[in-house]
Amino acid sequence: xxxxVLPRNAGRAVLAVGAAAALxxxxxxxxxxxxxxxxxxxIRAEYQGDIEDGIPVDMGLGGTTVTRVYQLVREDxxxxxxxxxxxxxxxxxTSYVEGDWEEYPGKGDFDxxxxxxxxxxxYPHVDVETIAGATGIEGLTVKEAVAxxxxxxxxxxxxxxxxxxxxxxxxxxxxxxxxHLLAEAVPVEQQPDATLEVEPxxxxxxxxxxxxxxxxTTNAGEVTLxxxxxxxxxxxxxxxxxxxxxxxxGDTVGxxxxxxxxxxxxxxxxxxxxxxxxxxxxxxxxxxxxxxTQTLITAGxxxxxxxxxxxxxxxxxxxxxxxxxxxxxxxxxxxPSDEPTPSDEPTEPEEKPAPPKEEQPTLPVTGGALxxxxxxxxxxxxxxxxxxxxxxxxxxxxxxxxx
Length: 403
Fold this sequence. Notes:
- By secondary structure, the protein is α+β, with helices and mostly antiparallel strands.
- Among the domains are: 141 residues, no CATH class; 99 residues, Immunoglobulin-like, CATH 2.60.40.
- Helix content is 27%, strand content 24%.
- The strands form 4 sheets. A 6-stranded antiparallel beta barrel has the order 1-3-4-15-14-5. A 4-stranded antiparallel β-sheet has the order 7-9-12-11, with no helix packed on it.
- Helix 2 runs antiparallel to helix 4 and helix 4 crosses helix 5.
């Protein structure tokens, strides 16, 4: 028992020292990465149920899982068709926001490139008749296509294998399409373009310079630009400095503010009607609050109207600072005087006291130095005693001779 206690106590001591060192040097465990904030112009929508049902499938986890094409409904009533990516996370009625593949918050190893291929080559992006003709699957139905497509997505995102359908319903056709999608899938690495994005969405600067460097990203062919800026402040191309009246994909712009402009602000808004491409990721907005929900991915190209923008503010520049006004009054010149000025009077050389001698710091006498001093003192006392003895002896001998 005592042998086991000692190592444990020693281990506790080591842990205590390690903890103290961590506190002393400000070390701490790395914080979990915060989910990325949605970018300016990202599409937002609400999950409100499904559009089309598929056949429940067995993915080898015991029992079957429903398959569906889910719908996201935007404020204007337009809908987005999506599949779920993560088999192991439930779905809640909540708000969703467009994001990038690297922001995927779900479980498993999401092979986004192959999932993208599956979605681009199956239902609903490709109609059932075309899929049946390409694969030779006779009598393929929408429900079967939905089941096979969803099972293939789960294979490339969670690593699960299709085992069959509930009660064997249409299992032959579902398996045939599932096998075809897995065998033919190749990575489609290119992530679909964002519908409309402005990054960043705010900047600050000084009058007399170009404030902001905003990059527009969109897959829209035409973008409407609206400016909100005081007179004299212009939106310009950052690279050339030339004024712009329209923007498109890849343009980088900023506000040219005159040097004499008063402190102020300006902004611009871009809007477009465009297409949400297949393979765009949508994640629950409440993920940032720790409320997880199913992550969805677009399975069809749907037309949407989107809007984004940015604002700047600036402070007064050098050109806005007014120098003090000149005075009209001539400067007064002192009249000549016969009185001697202090500089005209002879002066006695001033005697400067000699600087005091620097006092050498005294040091404490310790150790070998103290022993040396003691020995020297003893030697001195001995010499003094011998001198007194010899002096007295001579006097005694002299007295004896006199007698």
